[in-house]
Amino acid sequence: MEKHTEFFSVDFARCVACGQCVRDCAFKALKVGEDGRPVMAEAARCMRCQHCFAVCPTGAISIDCKKADDAVKLKGLELPSAASIENWLAVRRSMRTFAHEDVEPDVLDRILKNLGNVPTGCNARSLKFTCFSTRASLDRFRGQFIKTIEMHRDGTKLLPRWLAVPAIRMRRGGDDMFFRNAPGLLVISSDETNPAVTTPEVDVAAACAYFEMLAQAHGLATCWCGFLKLVQQEVPELLEETIGIQRTTPFYAMLFGMPGIRYARGVLRTDYATIEYR
Distance between CA 28 and CA 49 in Å, rounded? Predict the structure, then answer.
């Protein structure tokens, strides 16, 4: 027998009335019912965060028809040690030399699907992933981007030197200072029109960081493409005309591909941050 409340249900055969789901509900959407089992106190408070789903020791709770048996179980799960994560952070690099070949579609698909688990600053999920997954697709974007730059350069608006000069060099000799001859580009953006999204820039940055971690775990190289942020700030119409990123759209871009070089060690940071304990 199950207890249903719109999108929330409890399997009576599994529920042991431990109350952990009620205690862990941050917005008090759940309460303990007369029989000791959880019930929905106020559906409007539920953020669909699935904390109740995750904390239930017996897998009795279902949210939006999601079943506990389909989720990754923590018991017996092999997780990376603190030392291994620290070592990865010490040797991670932004790669600017990529191999020519494309990333295997299955690998890329696995990485992108796992980005559904990245945290957000306000528990509102409104990210968009625009992926140029092959060298051919990114080459088309490169060509369109350079063509758009040249059209603006031939017009009345004077382009910044940092944009015009590399574009000319790229057109003449193939020296790609913009995209580093990478075979792939991921553009992560947030919907600035969604009133529920209060931390769009944070959400984008978090997704970029987790993409880098997942990509490098799969043996890929990545590079934070800050150049496109400069373009948005200085010549926003270039991105509007090529990939639909508006002047106010929160976004960032990550280059990716197979590494074209191998580093022997990490670097030594001595000026990374100021640490203050209180």
Answer: 12
pLDDT in tens, 78-90: 999 999 999 999 9
Alpha helices in the chain, H assignment, sequence order? 20-24, 51-55, 82-91, 105-114, 135-153, 161-173, 200-217, 227-234, 236-242
Residues 48 and 149 in one domain: no
The token pair that represents 180 in the structure block: 């580093």
Which of these three, 42, 70, 98, is where a domain ends? 70
Residues of the chain with pLDDT under 70: 1-4, 153-158
Is residue 10 within 8 A of residue 60, CB to CB? The reply is: yes
Name the one residue in this structure whose structure tokens are 């496109």: 228
Residue 45's domain comprises 2-70
The CATH number given to whatever domain includes residue 31 is 3.30.70.20
The pTM (predicted TM-score) of the whole model is 0.91
Q: Are 167 and 231 in contact (CB under 8 A)?
A: no
